[in-house]
Amino acid sequence: MKPLLKLLPLFLLFFSCQKQYTSLTIQEELLSNLEKLNQEVRAFEKVANENPNQNQLQKSFETSRIAYKKIEWAVEYFTPDPARFINGPALDELEVEENKFLSPSGFQVIEELIYPHYSSSNSRTLKREIAVLKGLIAQVKEHLSVITISPDYVIDASKMEVYRILTLGITGFDSPIANQSIPEAKASLYSLKAVLEKLNTHNSKTKALLFDLIDQANTFCDSNTNFNSFDRATFIKEYLNPISEKLVQFQQDNTIKNVAKTNAINPDAKTLFEKNTFNVNAFIPSQEYAYSRAKADLGKKLFYDSSLSKDRRRNCATCHNPELAFTDGQKTNRSLNGISLPRNTPTLTYASLQNAQFWDMRQPDLEKQSLDVIQNKDEMHGNLKDNLTRIQGDSAYKKLIKNAFPTVKKLDEWQLQNAIASYVRSLNKFNSKFDQYFSGTSTTFSTEEKLGFNLFAGKAKCATCHFIPLFNGTVPPIYKKTEQEVIGTPQTKNGKIIDQDLGRFTQYKMAQLKHAFKTPTLRNITQTGPYMHNGVFKTLEEVVTFYNEGGGEGNGIAVENQTLPSDKLNLSLAEQKSLVAFMKTLSDAK
């Protein structure tokens, strides 16, 4: 026994000296991964300082981007201000109310400097942009070091990241030239698995199913990393949608509460493609304007009331015909005197899911939009205030008013505006063939329609402006900003002169806004022609041809500040036909 007793202290000493490893918290791991990103960016900077060749730069850049994608879920969610400059579009950030702009920075600016080809003449700019990127990462670190990351925020951020992968990631929005979207999507999904693993949860079955889906999705990404040929339709239906569903189930199983906030996406929605996914009240001026069916019923009657116009010959439906998806079928609208107006009448369907109204975005909400039209001397030349007494005394209106505003004793102008806007908010059916296909109900896509969707969300780059699934310019997954674009629309179909309408520049005299127009929804697109703000194209085929050539610039039109890439898409005739076939699936069922 004595030899054994002599060994015991040595035994205890050996094991007491062993380092005790403990699992990192979510925040600690996040900060560790943030430091890894910082190291990769520093390595990228070192490459840029050493007279590099193109391949070295691009490889180091791609490694840095993958490192960013592993923490994107948190950076975008918890630090949105620096995030928009770390990985936002390489376009000026406009603050129109202050008449100023912020120059772009970050990964996408750097991407333009080194892809598809790198020139040493860009060396100085490249080094400066890398230095800016390092500063932005430092801002993120400072913020993430002091916040509390609770399970409800982790779940909410994870949901947003899945939606971001679907709407911005695999479409090429944030990798427009390098086309590294598929490997980056894999990195983003992998990061979600890692963070969710760290949550203290009691239900292992749902977690196991969720993690298995993420593994399958990543295997699918590995099977085809080519941006143009990647099957996005299958990836969304068989992987991203089920992952979204399992995330919601995982949250419910573990009784993790929803984050208290007004959001465009219903927190209980299983996927982006459910009828109840989007919340119209996220786009209202204030809570007293909240949507109700009773308000919509009152608004519908007002919508068809010609007494609101000065000569009582025109109502809202005159120019927004329900049979034409609430458009008028004309090249451009006509004034009360029959004179052609400069702009095409846009659809009112899904107009409630935007943060700006009219082609020039001059009104922020539907309440102000309705008042603008009714008072416009060329459109209705009416006055809501003058109609208050008549409407409140009308027997047909009385019950509708009582149901819509039960506590109101005397009707006010804002309530009429709110009622009309509420009717417009009721025009979001979400029952098209597209909706049925991606929500997993009974409809299937034809081979041509599926190819068209994959082109739309991939090679043709349509979804980088017309974001899935609203197909307008309201930026996912937060949906708080609606974008405008300068695409160089011509005066005539085959003309070489840009249309003279200055668009948003009329309201805000900023050079970047010359000929800028809101990105409209493509839902119900087959019923809403002619197309563009000036109705210059009669058919969808003509529109696709215009974009295939690179917009205005690509078609030989002088455009000062085109935001649409001017390079050709190189779509074959068969691909163009498939693209049109897909867009036809966006028509609501009757």
TrEMBL record:
Residues 294-428, 447-587 form the Cytochrome c domain. GO terms for molecular function: cytochrome-c peroxidase activity; electron transfer activity; heme binding; metal ion binding. The keyword Membrane does not apply. Keywords: Heme, Iron, Metal-binding, Oxidoreductase, Peroxidase, Signal. Pfam families: CCP_MauG. It is found in: Cell envelope. One of its GO terms (cellular component) is cell envelope. The keyword Zinc does not apply. This is Cytochrome-c peroxidase. It comes from Flavobacterium petrolei.
